[in-house]
């Protein structure tokens, strides 16, 4: 079995044609590869945290395994689950499979990653959705890259250390002991130039006047004080798609107090009401 603590992977992430990565983000990915530690990515929703893992796997030519976390997810599920209910049912039916408990062990994402024939990328998506003890329950497994299967009395060790990308929307704090084992990077919201580059990936033939007017409206909207949820990159791309589909002219964008098709950008009535009140105040002050 290859040594899981072998020399660091020489591959480097340089971004892809479908993902605009800043120099700082590329450096973070490559640091995690060199250190062979999990990469913890935080940032506003819609800034491309999940997509990063997909594009890193594509760029490095590695398989991608995804584990999307819910509020009910337990750490054990990432390792394996013992399906006792199926075994009981099969025993009642006289199925010979019941004599081998391995037939009822369901491999989790980490087990699959540890036994992968080649190094892979593992996405643990939105870890902050789970119970506060969830990260602590994975400390030993992520640190030692192995775990024990009590039902079969076997120890699963990583053939190759996977690159583990963990995303968080900062809904709750993560334990210090867990943070210590990760390389951390916060994806800053893109500036105007970077957002323009991102748009260029998705809309390569977009006219400059439309892009300029849309960016003006978008960043002006993000700067409105008191918004409960500021629009994200993914929402801006959706909005652009609608503007093009409806052939909204740049002049219309420039002259609108409330953006057309605002439902793509504002996702709750409080923010829409706030914008309407501010617009009414501004109009009375003219």
Compose a concise summary of this entry.
This protein is an alpha/beta fold and 286 residues long. It has helices spanning 23-35, 49-60, 76-79, 84-93, 109-114, 134-137, 139-144, 176-180, 192-202, 208-222, 233-245, 250-255, 269-284; strands at 39-43, 64-68, 80-82, 105-107, 121-125, 146-149, 154-157, 163-168, 183-187.
Helical region count? 13
Helix fraction bin: 40-55%
Which value, in Å, is the CA radius of gyration? Answer: 24 Å
Number of strands: 9
Low-pLDDT sequence parts:
1-9
Q: Class by helix and strand content? A: alpha/beta
Distance between the termini: 75 Å
Which percent band covers the strand fraction? Answer: 5-15%
What about the largest sheet?
Answer: 5 strands, parallel
Give helix and strand order, one letter per element, not per position. HEHEHEHEHEHHEEEHEHHHHH
> Looking at the structure, what is the overall shape?
elongated
Question: Which structural traits does this protein have?
Answer:
elongated, 286 residues, disordered N terminus, 13 helices, 5-stranded parallel sheet, single chain, alpha/beta, two-stranded antiparallel ribbon
How would you characterize this protein structure?
This protein has 286 residues and is an alpha/beta fold. Helix content is 42%, strand content 14%. It is built from 13 helices and nine strands. The strands form three sheets. It has a five-stranded parallel β-sheet with strand order 2-5-8-1-9. It has a two-stranded antiparallel sheet with strand order 3-4. A two-stranded antiparallel sheet has the order 6-7. The longest helix is centred in the C-terminal third of the chain and has 16 residues, at 269-284. It starts with 22 loop residues before the first helix and ends with a helix.
